[in-house]
Amino acid sequence: MIKAVLFDLDNTLIDFVKMKLECSKESVKAMIKAGLEMDEETAYNKLLELYYETSLEDHLIFQHFLKKNTGKVDYKILSAAIVAYKKIVNGLLIPYEGVYDTLKKLKSKGLILGVVTDARKLNAWIRLTSAGLSNYFEIVLTLGDSKYKKPHKRPFIKAARQLKLKPEEIIFVGDNPQRDIKGAKKVGMKTAFAQYGFSFKEKTNNEDEKPDYILNEFNDLLKII
Ligand SMILES: [Mg+2]
Question: Which domain holds residue 160?
């Protein structure tokens, strides 16, 4: 019997991609205003291309962008991008539709809820708080707590231990087959793939990345638990 639901954070609870796209738009405008010689659409597309190539969590994305496209990092332009990004980012950290309601319903069914993320501790908490999600979870396990990134077994085992549950009593929800699904399966948890949040990655058919359930919307969870 399922007694707990563990969630990945980015692109599972919080719409990280939407935030990145909105922030990118504003940053591009600010860079052009600060002297970047490129039209808005081209710059925006090049920035997104770079996110695809590196990672949505590339913390030096603007440095990389400027270096690649202008041959150097102009600090006036760089700072314009970062300031524009920071100005709007927190307001854009919002959960997917149905998250609050679904979490409340799961809790009222007696399920224990938790988060297991590869994000750093403070970053994870800032995102949870910005998204209005800081009061829903019994445990929030971050990279700082487990020291190993998913799909390593450590974060999953540590979460189960903290909840004092067997892995098979837990369902793990995540948007990344290679990290979330594979890792949770390895330790014997049930898995639900957050297909609605799956982006920027190739789909795979690997057996060890195949989830027990697929969620097209967040509240599909209520159908399986
Ligand atoms: Mg994720």
Answer: 4-15+94-224
